[in-house]
Amino acid sequence: MKIVITVGLPGSGKSTYLARRRLNAISSDEIRRLLADDPRDQSINARVFSTIRHLIRQRIAVRRRVTYVDATHLTRWERRPYVQLARRYQCKLEALYFDVPVETCLRRNRKRHRLVPESAIRQMAARLQPPTKEEGFSRITRLPPAR
Questions:
Q1: Hey, what CATH class is 2-143 in?
Q2: Can you list the alpha helix ranges (DSSP code H) found in 1-147?
Q3: Using one digit for the tens of pLDDT, what is the confidence trace for 127-143?
Q4: List of residues 6+ apart from 41 with CB closer than 8 A
């Protein structure tokens, strides 16, 4: 079994990539919408990510071969729970790293229905730590900006 997480800024193409490939992903935005009726509500992040981990464990229990998780996962600290889950349940852990310049993300964001404040994206870009194999990933796929 395998857990695959996305890593990238808002507007980097994570959700679009998964949707175009018709991959069923656990989405942090969708969990926010389900819990708080608002996919932008950042005040419930602890509950959102606890729910994501619960859903991953449930998918492992029903023997789903691959579980995708759609969220920014910008730092090693944010990715660590997935490393722990993968080790505990003897799953492979992979990252889809959307290596997209912040200016491209900002341009895409301006065209979205649900805007993320530019200042928030810039702050997130400053915190972004590319995923590494040393963290515990068996594979990291670097995805440059889509044309």
A1: alpha beta
A2: 14-20, 28-36, 45-61, 76-88, 102-110, 118-127
A3: 999 999 999 999 999 99
A4: 32, 35
